[in-house]
Design a protein that fits this description.
With 257 residues, this protein is an alpha/beta fold. It has 9 helices and 8 strands. It has one domain: Metal-dependent hydrolases (TIM Barrel). The two termini are 14 Å apart. The structure holds nickel (II) ion (NI).
């Protein structure tokens, strides 16, 4: 079965058919879903989905593009949500210099504070790094992320970075639809460098639909396309990779049978 380790089913793109779609996931070979959080106002919806669907888990955290939504008490709020038994990670957190660089300093501060909280709560982090590899790596290093571990979601860094992420940071590396794009030479090289026991798959849905659905609304069932691309890269049958990534995801988020 597929473990989609990064989704946003609370997004308004699913408003029309969210329940129908989520209810159909087990028939579509999707066994587990980790729903990430971008800002704390999403948490009531995320917890509702977690309560309703046994195969949906959640994370809580503030995305770098949403740092301006952080109240003075945001860390206490995150901690409160993190107590829910199906909230298993702090995320998504990190740095994004693609859309905006004028919040760089607050992005860095809030990233650091959330890693410290994750370590204190002993929960893995879900890291978003876009056009910010140097600063992201430096902060993860300085904040001793290896103590809580986590995942680099929608990985866009180099093959060289993979070594430090998996060996020193005790983290996993996740790939989604962008791996299937024709021009994805660098991500494919990076994927090849990931040890099999650290590899994960994800959608980031509703975004990042794989070929041949590129540009359309993404969903967890389309991960079979990502698995086929990984099968090419590793020369391992897709069903085997599906099982490996499923087990890896369960280990990362500490999901028991
Ligand atoms: Ni995301």
């Amino acid at each position: 079965m597929i473990f989609d380790t990064h989704a946003h089913y609370n997004d308004e793109a699913f408003n029309e058919d969210r329940d129908e779609l989520l209810a159909s996931m087990p028939q579509k070979n999707v066994g587990l879903i980790m729903n990430a959080c971008s800002k704390l106002s999403e948490m009531d919806d995320i917890i509702d989905m977690c309560d309703k669907y046994p195969f949906v888990y959640g994370a809580v955290g503030i995305h770098p593009e949403e740092v301006e939504t952080a109240s003075d008490e945001y860390l206490a709020e995150i901690e409160k949500y993190a107590k829910h038994h199906k909230i298993l990670a702090i995320g998504e957190i990190g740095l994004d210099y693609y859309w905006t660089t004028d919040t760089k300093e607050s992005q860095k501060r809030i990233f650091r504070e959330q890693i410290r909280l994750a370590r204190r709560l002993d929960m893995p982090v879900i890291v978003h790094d876009r056009e910010a590899h140097g600063d992201t790596m430096q902060i993860l290093r300085e904040e001793n992320v290896s103590e809580c571990g986590g995942v680099f979601h929608c990985y866009s860094g180099s093959a060289e970075m993979v070594k430090e992420i998996t060996e020193k940071f005790n983290m996993y590396v996740a790939f989604g639809g962008s791996l299937t794009f024709k021009n994805a030479v660098k991500p494919r090289e990076a994927a090849k460098a990931v040890p099999l026991d650290r590899l994960l798959v994800e959608t980031d849905c509703p975004y990042m639909a794989p070929v041949p659905f590129r540009g359309k609304r993404n969903c967890s069932a389309y991960i079979d396309k990502v698995l086929l691309t990984l099968s090419d890269i590793f020369d391992i049958p897709a069903p085997e990779l599906e099982q490996i990534t499923f087990e890896n995801g369960k280990r990362l988020f500490r999901i028991e049978d």
